[in-house]
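During the second half of the funding period, the structural biology subgroup turned its attention to how the target accommodates small molecules. The most pressing case was zinc ion, which had performed well in the primary screen but for which no bound structure existed. We therefore specified the complex as follows and requested a full 3D prediction, including the ligand pose.
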Amino acid sequence: MSIRHHPAETTLIAYAAGHLDEALSAIVASHLAVCPRCRGRSRLADGIGGELLDSAEPATLRDDALDAVLARIAGAGPETAEPAPRAGRHGVAAPLGQLLPERLSDIRWRTVGPGIRQARLGETGRDPEGLKLLKIAPGRSVPRHTHRGHEMTLIVSGSYTDELGRFQAGDIADLDGEVDHQPVSDTGEDCICIIATDAPLRFEGWVPRLMQPFVRI
Ligand SMILES: [Zn+2]
């Protein structure tokens, strides 16, 4: 699996500090399971996250936070080799992978727009707040949109391309309210992704905006 797109540094720090909600955390955990580079970065983020938790004001880093972290790492002795978390079903780690059926073809999709289908994760069990599955038919696009909050997309299969590049299995698109994008599924196969949001997407055109209450993507 060649991963090109990773969570932002600030996202890894927020994850380590426990500031991400459940849906966003599940996406980060799944990415960490398949990305050695981010596992390394998250060890550093763990230290910074610890400093954030220790700080009297959680929203701000003390001036000496990074020095304290580096000192802590330097004093930690030889790094113990952590076993890599196992990538689970369809390359998606637990707990998200367990919410996917054994065969992706068993997912019950419903059409929400031209070439776009959506499904609930964990149809038969618990449906986690803020998580959904999206399938984009080859060559089709998701309506252009920005975000009110934090959105993270984990690619499960296929690929799409938008203003930020090409995203394939294991990649994460880590987007905040500043990003305005229009993902287009690459031709050849459906692109299936898991999307976690902490606020609804905001579509640009009036037609998708009208659709939004029904589509709920
Ligand atoms: Zn990564």
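Two results from this model are relevant to the next phase. The first strand starts at residue 110 and ends at 113. The chain has five helices and eleven strands.
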